[in-house]
Amino acid sequence: MKVFIIKKNPLTIPVVLSEVLGLYKENKINVSINYEEDFLFKGKNPYTTGESDCMMGDLTFFFYALEKGIDSVITSNLSRTIHLLLRKDKSFKDENLKIGVNRTGLFRLFMENDLKDKLKNPEIVWINNTYERIEALKKKKIDGLIAIEPFIDEIENRDLGKRVWSLKNSDKNLVMWCFKREHYEKNKEEVKIFHKVLREANNIYNNMLEEEKRKFLKEHMNYDEEHIEIALNFKFEKEGQVREEDYNLCQEWMIKTGEIKNKYRNAYYNKSPEIL
């Protein structure tokens, strides 16, 4: 199994921890990990280029892959790390807030659902690169932004803003692991064990002593002191199946907004309790 990760993303911690603890070997699965240290924002996706058999991300990533002809299966949801942050001098009381957003993200869906009674006539500013969104926030060209951890923590550490909403506040999940269908169909047991191992690693990390976490984050995640401090407070949620209502909500919204043209039956995500 080929797995590509970005180490700066805390969601990749269990992938690396499982290797360090020998959990893949113990469970007799072969996992080959390739990685980048940081987000590159070059538009290259290892999942679509064949460098990885699986992918993590929000549900839009999955539907965009299907539209590109990459037959895939959602196998699990994920801990939620998406947040809305506003400058410290702004709040939900303000109207016409300028929010920096990735063009292919979920913000417009959030506006129609969880944030519809919170944001008053917001103006979307399309900035795909998170680092460029942060620069725009610094220069007060935008009033807020959508970003994942650890970017949100970095911004708060620099006193540039405060998070005012999190996907964790929602009844929805909307983030997932998916596998290419060909790999999934040929290796269902391997995929099942992979998720079992990651869930075990999530629990191990959540319960590690601070000293143990620091050592692991420094030696194996290559985190600097700031990102070690951020990751020390990171807690993995209990992962499970993607809900049918979340799948349908995202797909119907993407069709309505023209993000995708085709409708994909619910067989495109795994509902079998045997996997999870």
The CATH homologous superfamily of the largest domain: Periplasmic binding protein-like II
CATH class of the largest domain: Alpha Beta
* Helical coverage, percent range: 25-40%
> How many beta strands in the DSSP annotation?
10
- In CATH, the architecture of the largest domain is 3-Layer(aba) Sandwich
Give the low-confidence spans: none
Termini separation (Å)? 18 Å
What is the CA-atom radius of gyration, in angstroms?
19 Å
Q: What is the H/E string?
A: EHHEHEHEEEHEHEHEEHHHHH
Please summarize the sheet with the most strands: 5 strands, mixed
CATH fold descriptor of the largest domain: D-Maltodextrin-Binding Protein, domain 2
Indicate the proportion of strand residues: 15-25%
Choose one word for the global shape.
Answer: globular
Number of helical regions: 12
User: What is the count of structural domains?
Assistant: 2
Give average pLDDT, whole number.
Answer: 93
- The largest sheet has its strands arranged as 7-6-8-5-9
Structural class category: alpha/beta
Layout: helices, strands, pairs:
Elements: E1 2-6, H1 13-20, H2 23-26, E2 32-36, H3 46-49, E3 54-58, H4 59-67, E4 72-77, E5 82-86, E6 98-101, H5 107-112, E7 123-126, H6 130-138, E8 144-148, H7 151-157, E9 162-166, E10 175-180, H8 181-186, H9 188-207, H10 210-219, H11 225-232, H12 244-256
Parallel strand pairs: 1-2, 6-7, 6-8
Antiparallel strand pairs: 3-10, 4-10, 5-8, 5-9
Helix pairs in contact: 1-9, 10-11
